[in-house]
Amino acid sequence: MNLQEIVNFGECGYIEYKSEWYWDLNTNSPKDTDWGEFIKDVLALINANSSSIEKTRYLVIGYDESNNDYYNFNLTDENYPNLSKKMKDKLRNFISEFSKIKFKLELKKTNKGNIILISIEQPIMLHALSKNIKTRTIEYPKNTVLGRVHNEGNYGKYDSVGILSEEEKEEIKSKLQQPLNNFSTKRRKKSIQATINSYLEVNNSFKLNNDTSKNSDELDKYYEFYELIGTSEQYFLYISDISIKATIDKFKKDIFSKLDNKLIELIVLTDAPKETTKNRRKENLEKYLKESKINHFKIHFIDDFGKDFLYRDHIEPFLFDKDYQNTKYFIDSHVTSKERPSEELKASEVISSWFQEEDNPVIVLTGEGGIGKTTLAKYFLNNTLKNLTDDKQYVLFLDSATLVGKLKESRIHSIYDLYKVDTDEKKSPSFTDSLFKLSIDNGSFIIVLDGLDEIISKLGDDFQLISFLERIYQDYCFNLSKTKIIITCRDSVWEEAVSGKKIAHLPPKSIYSMKAFNFEQVEEFFRTCFKNEQDSDKLEKKAKSFVEKLITTTGNKSNENIYSPFILDRIREIILDNISEQQLEDLFDDSYNLDSLCFSKSNRNDYFIYSVCKREIIKTQITVEDQIKLLCSLCKYNDLLSHYEFCNELKNILNRKATKQDEHSFISHPFIYSNDSRTKIGLKYDFLKDFFLKF
Questions:
Q1: ∠ Cα 628 634 640 (to 5°)
Q2: Would you state the pLDDT for residue 187?
Q3: Which residues have CB under 8 Å from 27's CB, separation 6+?
Q4: How far apart are CA 90 and CA 42, in angstroms?
Q5: Three-state secondary structure along 609-637?
Q6: First vs last C-alpha separation in the chain
Q7: Does 321 fall in a domain?
Q8: Predicted confidence (pLDDT) per residue in 577-597, tens digit
Q9: pTM summary value
């Protein structure tokens, strides 16, 4: 859940709110009882109760549930680093086996000030106090197991802290068995085996020495050691991010102390840290290795090693080096999830929160054509990637509208199949399936599959959507699981494709439906569009007048049907063409021609598209009939047309050879796309195909 979802959910067995910190941060003089309160609350959330199994726990410090608002408790960017360090130290010192807990501490900025969000994933065991603590009301001895219990008078809410009964502890232990097995498997599969296999694939002069290569037999002290032999020897060591020092000590005892040559140079690979910086992690590793008298090594993070030594050249074409276009007037939409369809959330917050989550590789954005799915994805990439600290970011943007024209074979089983269709394999013949999988699992680039509905519609039963989605989890989330894939799809096509079917691994919380703008968002959109124009207020008023006319004329019962970003953006273009009040009236006074062209005046898409085409008569002197004929003819093609093909279509419609002015007039049409050189021409919006194919 993102922050907004958490504060909207309400306190329960796994969510707790604190309106302010446990003492006045300005005084910076906590008592032992203050820390005792903090440790008590966190430990209770860690264990929670038998009804909260497999739930992520959240503690929000700085949210007042009684007022439904955030509270400023003087947390600053300056005092937070020292406070967060002390918080972690206290928890490590007072909670048993704290290193086994997946714990995340974040500073979040709100309109009222900074707050703290603590997230705790489902633990694999019950945890207890490792030392006595004293709170403001009671003292808890060492080995006490705290949890979330019933609040007196509010049975069933589990929003109080208490000592867990023996019966409750046994119930929790019983329910923990399956999550424990999942956790163990997950931790054990964090490995460099796939990296070593890919290294051997790229460097085929080496082979693995199976006699000397060995893996640790302990989950909490897990390492992998590989010796590669060829013209020389290379030695790889993987150190798990759990109990690093103990793991290095075990490796020294098991392997290093028995090596004849202590001067070998180890290539040490490890996981990128979550709660500290990469430099800090490297410094600690270096310190622990040298304390164990292991002095010759080079340290790499697994994902960085892949980029630097295995597939850098292959992902370089995906380099994100400039912003995606058409996000200039972006206004945040609302979305609802399949998990909680009645609750509207901000789209940008949802996708940003998803991007930060681990082991959540896919987000699906559904909605009608023109609702802003692609714009949201591009806006997110523009704003997220430029703020990341790494030097280079990579995106594989798969545009289905372009892909469908290249689908020579009907069998598409995986993302890799789509990549091969999209890319000239002759330019990158050695980016093999296994390297591709490794690079995605390492999180080396983001994938956007834009307009999956196009592929579903093109291939029909030959494209198995459920199998395609499940293979994402099986093939591209097998180790580090840093995979991030954004899928956009029209809602009607998605619903039909998944109707009555279960998608393994893809939870309802990862599928979102985008909503049309509300009136406030419409106002914000036009305000943003015209703010730098002369007479901006007048232009805004005229644009809103156009919207109102469209609502009135079509007799829409729901204004939402008019507030589509696509329609609003076309209205912006019309208004910026300096349309007069009379011309605006004329656009809505032509019901006869509407009927003769088989348009429905009560259908907002029919009426709006007709209005746009009618407006083009003033600019280009091309009749609505000829515009519609050309737009319909473009729908016959799955790919963009060459300039020659486009001119042939134009000639057939006009019944004469097209002039340069004809070409210019049609190519500049609001519904037609052309690249800068005019060598590729087609429909600007793929969803319009459905509209024009009905004629």
A1: 145
A2: 47
A3: none
A4: 11
A5: HHHHHHHHHHHHCCCHHHHHHHHHHHCCC
A6: 45
A7: no
A8: 776 777 666 666 655 466 666
A9: 0.69
